[in-house]
Amino acid sequence: SDGAPGPGHWDADAAAGGLVDLAVPGGAFSGRRAPCLKNPVLGPGVLQAIRIFHTRQPSLAPIPCVPEYGGKVCLGLIPKEFFQFLYPKTGVRGPYVLGTGLILYSLSKEIYVITAETFSAISTIGLLIYVVKKYGASIGEFADKLSEQKIAQLEEVKQASIQQIQDAIDTEKSQQALVQKRHYLFDVQRNNIAMALELTYRERLHRVYREVKNRLDYHISVQNMMRRKEQEHMINWVEKHVVQSISAQQEKETIAKCIAGLKLLAKKAPSQPVL
Amino acid sequence: MNENLFASFAAPSMMGLPIVVLIVMFPSILFPTPSRLINNRLISIQQWLIQLTSKQMLAIHNQKGRTWALMLMSLILFIGSTNLLGLLPHSFTPTTQLSMNLGMAIPLWAGTVITGFRYKTKASLAHFLPQGTPLPLIPMLVIIETISLFIQPMALAVRLTANITAGHLLIHLIGGATLALINISATTAFITFIILILLTILEFAVALIQAYVFTLLVSLYLHDNT
């Protein structure tokens, strides 16, 4: 968080800055930066007191990785390399014989004296071995779990950040895709407007047609009515005059003629079969 | 027994050189500096323990009291580690020396008292008289409270010294009893050895408890005065 690079990377600027400090006469903290250190008696104490604890990695050089497992030991004390060292000359049982011999020698020559302390040593060391054998693995697992929790926390933050950025990318992509498909919307809108225009035009056209037809129908019906009136009037006039022109005598003659005709027909009729 | 009972409490010297300084500085090696984000098991457990203890110990303090966090945590780590290391055979425990415990207790106690008098003079002086005392008892009570105040560093030092020394002495004595009884009656020696084992367990507990008590009391004195 303070911009320092992770382990394994040189921080050239800081290293150069530190070296520049050393180049100034008077050492890393010269008088121009820390006047309290000029006092020769209290200077070193102040230097230690103002040293900052644990703000960044203590060394700027690349530090090697932590080995995953410790070195192998036998009896919890003696590294296996010692056994390997003695193996070519004394075989597998060599170091054990050496150890037993040394212990017996020191006991017999009273180099190691059996005192009260021996028994307290037996009880203390025995207790420690018992505790380590019984709870050692679980304590190790607990320590591993602590580290794992720390890593998991940081990993979670990292994953959350990645997820956030991924979501932003997806949103941006979908927005861009939407922009590509905008023309559909515009086409639909254009089509709608065209249809509405067409509809209005046809409607108006139809109305005009209807209005014109109405006017023309009116004139036609007026004409028809006039002609019919004229006809009726003429017929009435002709009938009236015809009826007027028929005198009484003509009427009698016509009737006599009709009767004579009928009599003639009546004579002819009975000779024909009735159908 | 060719050495007296108190030989293990003598200040250790090798060829005339006092190496007690080296012995006092030795436990600091056992607390490595965490140099990475994820450390090895030892450092992880130590970090967890320190976090647990400091959270619990500094909960009661205000902002001013929490500036003592480093001091208190160093104190409990030092006393705890020296006490536990002293239980190993043939080792020297610095905290059995009254001189060292006085050297730890007096400056810390004086620090808390002087802090109290500097920043809250009236409240510090008011500690000398508990609330609600009847009027005739006041002079005597002030004297008693003063004595009780000045006995605090002595009590701190002597408590630690006496506990650790007594524990070591008992282990010595019972070990010696076991040694002496082996030739007389093996069964009794065995019973005594069992007692020794139980005592060792007790001593482990006492080592840690004493460290805690020392630090807790300093913390309480601090709380009174900040």
From TrEMBL, chain A:
One GO cellular component, as annotated: mitochondrial inner membrane
Where it sits in the cell: the answer is: Mitochondrion; Mitochondrion inner membrane
Residues in the signal sequence: none
Give the family this protein belongs to, as stated in its UniProt record.
Belongs to the eukaryotic ATPase B chain family.
Species per Swiss-Prot/TrEMBL record: Canis lupus familiaris
State the Gene Ontology terms under molecular function.
Answer: proton transmembrane transporter activity
- The name this protein goes by in its record: ATP synthase subunit b
How the protein assembles, per its UniProt entry? Component of the ATP synthase complex composed at least of ATP5F1A/subunit alpha, ATP5F1B/subunit beta, ATP5MC1/subunit c (homooctomer), MT-ATP6/subunit a, MT-ATP8/subunit 8, ATP5ME/subunit e, ATP5MF/subunit f, ATP5MG/subunit g, ATP5MK/subunit k, ATP5MJ/subunit j, ATP5F1C/subunit gamma, ATP5F1D/subunit delta, ATP5F1E/subunit epsilon, ATP5PF/subunit F6, ATP5PB/subunit b, ATP5PD/subunit d, ATP5PO/subunit OSCP.
Q: Name one GO biological process term.
A: proton motive force-driven ATP synthesis
Is Hydrolase among this UniProt entry's keywords?
no
Give the protein's function. Subunit b, of the mitochondrial membrane ATP synthase complex (F(1)F(0) ATP synthase or Complex V) that produces ATP from ADP in the presence of a proton gradient across the membrane which is generated by electron transport complexes of the respiratory chain. ATP synthase complex consist of a soluble F(1) head domain - the catalytic core - and a membrane F(1) domain - the membrane proton channel. These two domains are linked by a central stalk rotating inside the F(1) region and a stationary peripheral stalk.
Keywords per UniProt: Acetylation, CF(0), Hydrogen ion transport, Ion transport, Membrane, Mitochondrion, Mitochondrion inner membrane, Transit peptide, Transport
- Enumerate the InterPro entries for this protein: ATP_synth_Bsub_B/MI25 (IPR008688), ATP_synth_F0_suB (IPR013837)
Look up the domain of life of the source: Eukaryota
Automatic annotation (TrEMBL), chain B:
Instruction: Give the multimer and partner information.
Output: Component of the ATP synthase complex composed at least of ATP5F1A/subunit alpha, ATP5F1B/subunit beta, ATP5MC1/subunit c (homooctomer), MT-ATP6/subunit a, MT-ATP8/subunit 8, ATP5ME/subunit e, ATP5MF/subunit f, ATP5MG/subunit g, ATP5MK/subunit k, ATP5MJ/subunit j, ATP5F1C/subunit gamma, ATP5F1D/subunit delta, ATP5F1E/subunit epsilon, ATP5PF/subunit F6, ATP5PB/subunit b, ATP5PD/subunit d, ATP5PO/subunit OSCP.
List the CDD domains.
Answer: ATP-synt_Fo_a_6
Q: Does the keyword Mitochondrion apply?
A: yes
The protein's topology relative to the membrane is:
Multi-pass membrane protein
Domain of life of the organism encoding this protein:
Eukaryota
Q: Which gene encodes it?
A: ATP6
The protein's name is ATP synthase subunit a
**Similarity comment text for this entry:** Belongs to the ATPase A chain family.
Could you name the Gene Ontology cellular component terms for this entry? mitochondrial inner membrane; proton-transporting ATP synthase complex
Localization recorded for this chain is: Mitochondrion inner membrane
* Organism encoding this protein: Canis lupus familiaris
